[in-house]
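QA checklist item 7 of 12: single-chain prediction sanity check.
[x] sequence parsed
[x] length recorded as 284
[x] structure emitted
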Amino acid sequence: MGIRQYKPTSPGRRNASVSDFADITDKKKKPEKSLLKRLKKHSGRNNQGKITVRHRGGGHRKMYRVIDFKRRTDGVTAEVISVEYDPNRTCRIALLQYEGGEKAYILAPVGLKAGDKLENGPKADPKMGNCLPLANIPAGSEIHAIEMQPGRGAQLCRSAGGVAVMNATEGGWAQITLPSGEVRRLPSSCRATIGQLGNTEHSKVRLGKAGRKRWKGRRPHVRGTVMNPVAHPMGGGEGRNSGGRHPCSPTGKLAKGGRTRKRKKASTKAIIRRRKSRRYGQLK
């Protein structure tokens, strides 16, 4: 796949680009109707109607594609029917049809195309697109869609271009290196899919205009320093002020360098090496 540049017919188009969607099998094919669900919008509000996540609202109407993150259909060969676009995520999805006629969507890795055969389970070969327990994956393999607990479904490495590396397996535990650089151990019975996720150039797409952000359901973001003191801790002052304090949220929570992870979180013991912070180096 690649990036297609627009012709500069307007200021908004001058700097805009879009994916060429070359990895999609059929651009006119509609998604599988049995795997669609209505996606209700919440606009960043909780069950009381209060805004808990700012800058959300609007956006294009879309249906949710039900993705099989667990892949527990073992010992049955599945054929890739098509590779499709999913408006709910950055990577592509692939429609599978098992020998029994069951259909399912999965996250599509690089190089997957219509007609390929995939398998799930401990007896599957460690080749691109197959889903295996970590204990059955050779060391040094690239993996994605990784479970954190057996049977819970994939939680790690699910975005475009995402890939982790299988390091080793010992004593019922598997050690992997995540895209952030963090080295973590997981139960070796957790499952992962072989290969790197597709649409690797997604980060190079330039929106070009504010309207494309609104299509995604993102409303304008206003800086705290230009607000009044009643609306933000960094607001107020004569002229342009830097705020006079460390950057923070409207509720006063530090925005840069503040620790957000609980110190006594149970999964901390599973982290062998923390990821590196760009600002402060190695996190502790």
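[x] summary fact logged: Residues 210-215 form the longest helix (6 residues).
[ ] second reviewer sign-off
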